[in-house]
Each structure stands twice: as C-alpha cells, then as structure tokens.
Amino acid sequence: MLDIDKFLAASVKxxxxxxxxxxxSKLGLLSFNAQGNKPMELISTIxxxxxxxxxxxxxCGAGGTTMHLAEVTGAEVHGIDISPESIAIAxxxxxxxxxxxxxxxxxxxxxxxxxxxxTFDAVVTEYMAFFLQPDTFCNFLLALKxxxxxxxxxxxxxxxxxxxxxxxxxxxxxxxxxxxGYKFHIPLSSEYVDWLTRAGFKQVNIETKISPPxxxxxxxxVGGWKNLFKIIKVTLKxxxxxKDLRKKFMQMGRVKRVxxxxxxxxxxxxQAILVGQRPLS
Length: 281
Ligand SMILES: C[S@@+](CC[C@H](N)C(=O)[O-])C[C@H]1O[C@@H](n2cnc3c(N)ncnc32)[C@H](O)[C@@H]1O
Known about the structure:
CATH topology: Rossmann fold
Number of domains: 1
CATH class: Alpha Beta
Helix content: 40-55%
Number of helices: 13
Bound molecules: S-adenosylmethionine
Mean pLDDT: 90
Strand content: 15-25%
Strand order of the largest sheet: 3-2-1-4-5-7-6
CATH architecture: 3-Layer(aba) Sandwich
C-alpha cells in the first residue's frame, strides 16, 4: 500500500541523515514485501492465528502488513521495530485502523525483547530475519507460550547455490550492510532450519515457497502506473538534489538487481514461510 501524497511531500531535508528503512517509510512505502499482504495471510492460516491469539510481529517497519494481520484475524497484535521513525508511522496508521484496539506498536529490538516469557501464541517475522544472528531465535522461543508457533516469511538461499553466484550475492550483502549501517545476510534455507532447531523449536519446516510477484503484482503494490511514474519523478528529483540520497538509491538499485532481478543470482534466492513450534514441555 502506498501513500503517494506522503511520498510527494518528502523533501531532501526530511530524508538526509536518516536510515534507509526510515527513508523508505517516510516516502510512504508501508510494506517492504513486494508480495503485499499475501505472506501475512499465509502466516495467519499456517500458524492458526485467530481472534483468541496474541501475536508478536518482530521488525514490523511502518506496520502495513501487521495492521492487516490484526484486521483479518481479530488477534491482539504487538508490532515492534528498532526504528523510531517507522514505529511513529505505524502508530499513526494503526490509530486509523478498524483493528486499532487490537494493535500495539512500540520501539523494540529483536535481540533484547522486553516481554515476559510465555506471552505469545505466535511470533512472526517478515522480511527482517536477514538481520538476525542464530541466538536471537532463543529469545523468540522464550517469548512464546508452550505450544506456540514461530512463522517467518523470509528470503532464503538455495543450499545448491553455485560458488560464483554465491560470491556475487555475498558481495552485494556487504554493499547493503554498508547502506543500512548493520549486517545484512540471507541465510541458506538449511541454516534457518538448523538455527530454529538448535534454539529448541520442534516441527521446524519450510512450509511453503512463495512465488516471486508478477509484474502486475509489483505494479499493484505501488498503486498502479500513475503512481509508479510519480515515484520515479520524485526519486529522480531527490537524487539530483542530494549526493547522499543519490548514493543510497544507486546502492539499493544494485542490491535489488542481484537479489531479485538478475537470473544468474536471483534464481538461488526465494521467499518462503518457515515454521516451528515451542514444545509443550
Ligand atoms: C525490510 S524491513 C521489513 C519491514 C516489515 N516487516 C515489512 O515486511 O514491511 C526490515 C525491518 O526490520 C527492522 N529491524 C532491523 N533490525 C531489527 C532488530 N534488531 N529488531 C527489530 N527490528 C529490526 C528495520 O528497522 C526494518 O523496519
């Protein structure tokens, strides 16, 4: 979902010197996942999220899909993100949602959760676990009630990736880490399964692969042709006006090409839903 008016209103002064995700959120892009709400809907079905559930969404960003989760399931949903700017936008959006009484957004760090143990029926991540170290999954296990589920819609790498493609992907991850100011790494699908299992989750499984969005879906996710042209126009204007923003947009373009566009590398990277359960005892 894209709030095009916010996008058009953003000025160089608003955007320089803040983090990449804050820039994108300020530009009005409320979901980073080009698949829109589809992964969150799959998660709600796979993790049996209902109006009786209490859910933690880690790294919720500006909250677009977290809000959708609360709206379609009626669950009590807590969204946390390390970015104060993104949480401010999520709170503003959430206050206008039909599920506003069920939505709770706060600044928070996946590596140091502030919730008591045994709180949640489900812990959810979407497009953020590429920032996590394996030991963080122990925090998620403790935050869950016994029998609770973890469900992650994440990018992962095919374990059969060839050496040349892998080297290009790793080099691109370095560029992206530099742009973000913290480490970005897409793990192998087998590494995710291993990490969750070691953290103590049972029934760890790559439940379903999500096919890449079609051109139509990508276009819809930015609100159609008219919005796309407006976005390109504003982006070019911002790039002309600021060296800092120009560098960031160009770095991001290179990352996108390697991860999702160039067949030689992108064919080894896919989005899937990974699930696991906290054992009952
Ligand atoms: C690619 S965005 C995805 C946002 C949202 N889940 C979505 O799909 O639209 C990744 C988010 O993870 C957040 N993030 C990164 N490290 C984090 C951490 N240690 N704890 C909480 N959030 C984190 C970033 O601030 C950013 O908003």
